[in-house]
Amino acid sequence: MRLYNTLTRRKEEFKPRELGKVAFYLCGPTVYNHIHIGNARTFLSFDVIRRYLEFSGYEVTYVQNVTDVDDKIIKRAAEEGRTVTEVAEEYTTAFIEVMHALGVKDPTIRPKATEEIPAMLALIECLVAGENAYESGGDVYFSVRSFPSYGKLSGRDIEQLQSGARVEIDERKRDPLDFALWKAAKPGEPSWPSPWGEGRPGWHIECSAMSERYLGTPFDIHAGGDDLVFPHHENERAQSEACSHTTFAHYWLHGGMLTIDREKMAKSVGNFLLLKDVLEKVRPQALRLLMLQTQYRSPFDYSVERLSEATAALERVESALRNLAWTTENYAGVPIAPNEPGERAVSWTGDLLARIERTREQFVLAMDDDFNTAGAVAAIFELVTAGNSSVSDGVLSESHRLAVIETADTIIKLLGVLGVMLGVDDSEDAEELPLETVELARELAGYHGDIPAEAVDLLLALRREARTHKDWATADAVRDGLGTLGFVIEDTSTGTRVVRR
Ligand SMILES: [Zn+2]
Predict the structure, then answer these.
(1) pLDDT tens track for 167-221
(2) What distance in angstroms lies between residue 177's CA and the mean position of ligand 1's atoms?
(3) What confidence tens digit (pLDDT) does each residue in 254-284 have?
């Protein structure tokens, strides 16, 4: 597996610090507002990378913080006459809800900055003791010039930063490049006691303290959007390495930016899109599929047209899967010849099995090459097309039937690795199947599991089988049993299903 490392500016072979395990830190949201779809793209990209690492056999410890004390939160609270905690809690809850809606897995650990102050104080004390930081008027600043490799991550030169940037002159700083680790309390702001008086942490120190505490250093992957490379990640690295004298993180991964209709998203342009508003209009799986069609480091352009194309593509996959399921279940077309498969059957089966194998290989090759989701999705779509044409004459033999089933399973599984969950109806009117279906399947069909969807599938298969043998009593028992639970059986062109009466 090769991944692009911002620190070295090249693709590198991925070697975790511990065999089979990955320690992963992703900068989380500052909870002062609902997240926009640019943030969503970053969080989705790293969710997919995490899922793929897990699929590849790694045990991933995935830490994503919540910045719940910050200038923007304080400002919003003051404007709305609320406490900082109230504002932070509202948007933390909203953030988690919208991540769930998008199918982003919860992190292994989700630390909150306000609950990690002791670790931040310990790190600042270490930096002050080592003369990498100094106190000034109740603030504490990091001395950028005390860390010789400052600028290495973002590829910036200290002298250029000094002369080029509009560095504000601040009398409390010894050098305009220095940045705050700790800010003295102002009236009405949340604050914590410290050796330098009441105050609160700076943003950068939060991530250093939380990643070190939960992952240890050096950890494997530090990730975020590419707007965080400078100054946030540059500063995190300087703070952590100045204190520990060891590497902070081995691989730095940064997601590309998002544009809308080829324009930068900005409140001033009036094209600022919140994720929650987008999700009210489209299926989350379609938005996910759209974002996957661009590799995570490349700029991604969002438009309503592209989103409807992705919705149509998702529907094509679903329709193909229904088609494959219908054909294998109903043996439509040419009758099955289990012992003497015709020539076409042999060639369809062989072609399909080869195509499945090739898809799996292409999927892994693409993903192992710096998480090229665009290539991975393209490989899956080729299998969708191959599956569809393979059943154009129905199912031709038992081996062909098994190959078709494997085609459908492969499509579902590989899309699932990317977090596109098919077979899960994510529309709001999705039917909840009651647990009683499990009882019914146990009674009528000898079912041993405990999953309602499986139970219903088995009941429908039993009914189909019974009708083939003109065993009307069994077929009626299935119909009546499901009827008692409030469901009717519908035979449609795409298969048999149950719907609530
Ligand atoms: Zn961070």
Answers:
(1) 566 788 999 899 999 999 999 899 999 999 999 999 999 999 999 999 999 999 9
(2) 19
(3) 999 999 998 988 888 888 899 999 999 999 9
- Cα 153 to ligand 1 centre (Å): 14
Please, what CATH class does the domain formed by 2-281 belong to?
alpha beta
CATH of domain 304-417: 1.20.120.640
408 closest CA partner among 330, 497, 327, 469: 327
Question: How far does the centroid of ligand 1 lie from the alpha carbon of residue 104, in Å?
Answer: 19
Residue-by-residue DSSP string for 239-281: HHHHHHSS-SEEEEEEEPPEEETTEE--TTTT---BHHHHHHH
Q: What is the mean pLDDT of residues 71-86?
A: 95
Asked if the model's pLDDT at residue 345 lies above 90, the reply is no
Q: Quick check: 181 and 28 in contact, CB under 8 A?
A: no
Report the separation in Å between the CA atom of 250 and the middle of ligand 1, taken as the mean of its atom positions: 16
Tell me the sheet residues that pair with 134.
141
Closest CA to 5 of 237, 322, 273: 237
Mean pLDDT of 78-88: 95
- How close is the Cα of 39 to the center of ligand 1, in Å? 13
Owner of token pair 């050098």 = 175
In three-state form (DSSP H/G/I as H, E/B as E, the rest C), the secondary structure along 183-198 is EECCCCCCCECCCCCC
Residue carrying structure tokens 């988690």: 96
How many Å lie between the centroid of ligand 1 and the Cα of residue 26?
A: 7
What one-letter code names the amino acid at 135? E
Helix runs in 102-197, H state only: 117-129, 158-164
Separation of CA 31 and ligand 1 centre (Å): 13
pLDDT at 498 over 90: no
- Whole-model pTM: value is 0.83
Element (H, E) at 309: helix 304-330
Q: Which of 374, 352, 25 is CA-nearest to residue 213?
A: 25
Domain ranges of the chain: 2-281, 304-417, 436-500
Instruction: Write the CB contacts of 124 (distance below 8 Å, at least 6 apart in sequence).
Output: 133, 140, 181, 182, 194, 201, 205
Residue from 91, 199, 214 nearest 138 by CA: 199
Q: Give the integer Cα–Cα distance in Å for 97 and 105.
A: 11
Question: How many angstroms is it from 266 CA to the middle of ligand 1?
Answer: 22
Reply yes or no on whether the pLDDT at 492 is more than 80. no
Bridge partners, 192 (sequence order):
199
Angle subtended at Cα 272 by Cα 81 and Cα 294, rounded to the nearest 5 degrees: 135
Q: Count of CB atoms within 10 A of residue 272's CB?
A: 14
Q: Which of 124, 176, 128, 150 is nearest to 235 (CA)?
A: 150
